[in-house]
Structure formats: C-alpha cells, structure tokens
C-alpha cells in the first residue's frame, strides 16, 4: 500500500495572493515586470529571475515590506482546518515554498511547524536585498529552481509514497511532473491540462480536502488508520 505524502506551495496557494508579486508591485521599479515575464516564459530560471527582482529593492525597505506583507496577506479559506485534518489522519504535510523566510514563517506560525517548512532566505545586510538559496537543485535537476521542489520531494519521499502536490504557479510545474496527483489552480492547472498530468482543481482548501478524499490511495490509508494499523512517519 502506498502512503500519501502531501507537498504544498505557499504563495498563491496557501495565501490568496502571490506575496513576491505583491512586494514587487508595491516597492520595485518598473524593471521587475520584464524579469517576471522572462521567468514565466522560461527565458530566465526562477533562481535568476527572483534573485534579480529582489536586487531591485533596497535593504532599507525591510520593515516597510515586512509590515506590508503581514498586513495584506490572506490565508486561503480552509487551510488551518486542512492541516488539522491531515494531522489527525497521520498524513505527512510539508510546505515547500519559493517565498522568503521573513514572511513565510510568521504567516504560518501556529499552523505549520517550522521544521515542516522549506523556503528561501532573504539577506538584508547589503545595499539591496539578496536571496540565499538553502535548497538548491540536486544532481537530478538542472533547472536552477532556487528552492528546488523536486529535489526536496526526492529527499522526503519513501520508496512507496504517493506524492500529492498542491500549487498554482510556474514554480510548481517541475514538482507537479514528479507527483502522482497535482491539486492545482491558475497557471499550474493549465500546465497540468496541457501536460496531461493527473490532477484536480481547487479554489480553497475545502476543495483540496474533497479532492484528496476522492483518491483511492488516500481512501485506503484512511481505512487502514481506522482499522488501527500504524505506519512509519
């Protein structure tokens, strides 16, 4: 029997808005638009594009940017209940985000334990904001992902795990290709359709829960849990 492993994006998935895009719209000069378009067209890698966008911002904006994000970010409906549901079922859940630590950690505080969050790190010690990449691509990925979601999945998964990827954007495409099921919205939903990946659509985390409960592998897991069998974490 395959054990479900749930991997979830943050920006635009857990939160309603993409927080990096919100930061750029509010604080960055116009040059950020060309960088964003180059990432979406895949002319620039995610690592190069996102790194270059943050270099447009002065480190002196740290307090203003942090206050802005923590004020305007909105968690998508049903997320906290969804995390509690997974915990009660013994289903492993990780947030794997191309976002930055200074807003990902505080927005998830009290909902997801820090050790279950993978994200990038913003460095405010120079004149402009630079990005540290603690989770680079492994030797099986050459896409310069920044926070390499496929590499993290390879690190986390067991040999028989059933991988579920929840996401919305270009940063989730390579992870979706590795997943057994992708629960998607927006850009990623279209990519799943074009690539003919096994997928379901969502708008909130009540939709995500319904999609999971309709999957044979999850149903089998629930039946095993209700029968009192234990599984390794």
Automatic annotation (TrEMBL):
Coiled coil: none
Catalysis performed (reactions): 2-hydroxy-5-methylsulfanyl-3-oxopent-1-enyl phosphate + H2O = 1,2-dihydroxy-5-(methylsulfanyl)pent-1-en-3-one + phosphate
InterPro entries (UniProt xref): HAD-like_hydrolase_phosphatase (IPR050849), HAD-like_sf (IPR036412), HAD-SF_hydro_IB_MtnX (IPR017718), HAD_hydro_PyrdxlP_Pase-like (IPR006384), HAD_sf (IPR023214)
UniProt keyword terms in alphabetical order: Amino-acid biosynthesis, Hydrolase, Methionine biosynthesis
CDD domains noted in UniProt: HAD_Pase
A Pfam family it matches: HAD
Pathway: Amino-acid biosynthesis; L-methionine biosynthesis via salvage pathway; L-methionine from S-methyl-5-thio-alpha-D-ribose 1-phosphate: step 4/6
Signal peptide: none
KW Metal-binding (keyword) present: no
EC number(s) recorded for this UniProt protein: 3.1.3.87
Lineage top rank: taxon: Bacteria
Enzyme superclass (EC): hydrolase
GO biological process: L-methionine salvage from methylthioadenosine
Gene Ontology MF annotations: 2-hydroxy-3-keto-5-methylthiopentenyl-1-phosphate phosphatase activity
Functional description taken from the UniProt entry: Dephosphorylates 2-hydroxy-3-keto-5-methylthiopentenyl-1-phosphate (HK-MTPenyl-1-P) yielding 1,2-dihydroxy-3-keto-5-methylthiopentene (DHK-MTPene).
HAMAP family: Salvage_MtnX (MF_01680)
Family recorded in the similarity comment: Belongs to the HAD-like hydrolase superfamily. MtnX family.
Protein name stated in the entry: 2-hydroxy-3-keto-5-methylthiopentenyl-1-phosphate phosphatase
Organism: Bacillus sonorensis L12
Gene: mtnX
């Amino acid at each position: 029997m395959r054990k479900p492993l749930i991997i979830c994006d943050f920006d635009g998935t857990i939160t309603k808005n993409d927080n990096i895009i919100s930061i750029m719209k509010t604080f960055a000069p116009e040059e950020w638009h060309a960088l964003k378009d180059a990432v979406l067209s895949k002319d620039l890698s995610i690592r190069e594009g996102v790194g270059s966008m943050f270099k447009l911002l002065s480190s002196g904006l740290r307090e203003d940017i942090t206050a802005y994000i923590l004020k305007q970010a909105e968690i998508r409906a049903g997320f906290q209940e969804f995390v509690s549901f997974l915990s009660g079922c013994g289903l492993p859940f990780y947030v794997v985000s191309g976002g930055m630590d200074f807003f990902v950690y505080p927005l998830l505080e009290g909902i997801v334990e820090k050790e279950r969050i993978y994200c990038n790190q913003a460095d405010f010690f120079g004149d402009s904001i630079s990005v540290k990449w603690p989770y680079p691509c492994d030797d099986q990925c050459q896409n310069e992902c920044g926070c390499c979601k496929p590499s993290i999945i390879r690190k986390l998964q067991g040999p028989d795990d059933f991988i579920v990827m929840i996401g919305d954007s270009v940063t989730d495409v390579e992870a979706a290709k590795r997943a057994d099921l992708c629960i998607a919205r927006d850009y990623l939903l279209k990519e799943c359709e074009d690539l003919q990946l096994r997928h379901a659509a969502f708008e909130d985390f009540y939709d995500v829960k319904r999609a999971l409960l309709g999957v044979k592998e999850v149903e089998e897991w629930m039946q095993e849990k209700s029968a009192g069998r234990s599984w390794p974490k």
